[in-house]
């Protein structure tokens, strides 16, 4: 009953739970969701319409189905492509790493690029949840690499699960380069993948300084699963020209915003 009251009071929480039910059952009906959350069917229909507008579900008569599978580029295709913007942002981020530090690298193609951009003679201890990033870091003679274990998500090429979280909770790092799927001034950091949430939260809890590096298209965006508020980020590195989000909103939250010069 407590969950029902919480979901009724917080629409964004109720919608996250609807997505979890949809992921589990493969279909949701407005009438059943209305009873489950103790709200009216009109409220549920508005929830489903909002989720459909955001591209997160496919509306059908009386309920919703999972959205069609993503037909975009897979992880390895994105990694192999040259992106000048990401390369420049990664270089800005890598310049903040100092010898002797303990540095965490979240999953994602941008954090992978940061690993590639480190000075060749850098001497650090690196922890990562990404096997691909671990391979890149292993090429540096001065870097001690710790790869977190767990179940591999083929969509993100990162690990998750209790083993991953437990290892991360036992580390106190100087810096975390966190991967950003979406970041919104009010909603916070959010992810498309539910299994990433506890891992990203453990990473945030284990670092003294959190640096988020992201392209402008992810500013102001929202994905279904909220990781943490923006206040958990200390520094945001992004593009000079921001079309989809006002960096001033992040500065008002006390975040250092660094924009690329080109």
List its traits:
3-stranded antiparallel beta sheet, 11 helices, alpha/beta, single chain, disordered N terminus, 38% helix, 262 residues
Radius of gyration: 19 Å
The rough form would be described as globular
The number of distinct helices, counting runs of at least 4 residues, comes to 11
Q: List unreliable stretches of 5+ residues.
A: 1-5
Query: Which structural category do the helix and sheet elements fall into?
Result: alpha/beta
Instruction: List how many beta strands DSSP finds.
Output: 15
Largest sheet: 7 strands, parallel
Q: Beta-sheet strand percentage?
A: 15-25%
Quote the distance from N terminus to C terminus: 53 Å
| Fraction of residues in helix | 25-40%
Strands across the major sheet, in which order? 6-5-4-9-12-14-15
SSE ordering: HHEHHEEHHEHEHEEEHEEEHEEEHE
Q: What's the average pLDDT?
A: 87
Walkthrough of the structure:
The structure is a single chain. This protein has 262 residues and is an alpha/beta fold. The protein contains eleven helices and 15 strands. The strands form four sheets. Strands 6-5-4-9-12-14-15 form a seven-stranded parallel sheet, sandwiched between helices. Strand 4, helix 7 and strand 5 form a beta-alpha-beta unit. Helix 1 (2-9) crosses helix 2 (11-25), helix 3 packs across helix 4 (41-53) and helix 7 (109-116) runs parallel beside helix 8 (131-137). The longest helix is centred in the first third of the chain and has 15 residues, at 11-25. The protein is globular, with a radius of gyration of 19 Å.
């Amino acid at each position: 009953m407590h969950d029902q009251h919480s979901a009724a009071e917080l629409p964004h929480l109720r919608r996250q739970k609807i997505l979890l039910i949809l992921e589990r059952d493969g279909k949701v009906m407005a009438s059943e969701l209305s009873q489950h959350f103790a709200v009216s069917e009109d409220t549920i229909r508005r929830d489903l319409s909002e989720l459909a507008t955001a591209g997160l579900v496919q509306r059908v008569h009386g309920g919703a189905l999972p959205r069609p599978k993503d037909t975009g580029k897979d992880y390895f295709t994105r990694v192999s492509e040259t992106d000048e913007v990401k390369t420049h942002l990664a270089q800005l981020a890598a310049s903040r790493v100092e010898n002797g530090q303990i540095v965490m690298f979240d999953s994602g193609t941008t954090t992978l690029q940061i690993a590639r951009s480190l000075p060749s003679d850098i001497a650090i201890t690196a922890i990562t949840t990404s096997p691909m990033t671990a391979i890149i870091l292993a090429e540096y003679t001065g870097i001690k690499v710790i790869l977190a274990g767990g179940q591999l998500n083929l969509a993100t090429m990162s690990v998750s699960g209790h083993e991953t979280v437990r290892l991360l909770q036992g580390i106190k790092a100087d810096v975390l380069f966190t991967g950003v799927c979406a970041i919104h001034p009010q909603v916070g950091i959010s992810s498309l993948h539910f299994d990433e949430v506890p891992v990203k939260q453990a990473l945030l809890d284990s670092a003294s300084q959190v640096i988020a590096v992201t392209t402008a298209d992810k500013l102001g965006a929202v994905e279904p699963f909220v990781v943490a508020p923006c206040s958990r980020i200390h520094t945001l590195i992004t593009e000079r020209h921001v079309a989809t989000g006002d960096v001033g909103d992040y500065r008002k939250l006390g975040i250092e915003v660094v924009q690329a010069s080109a």
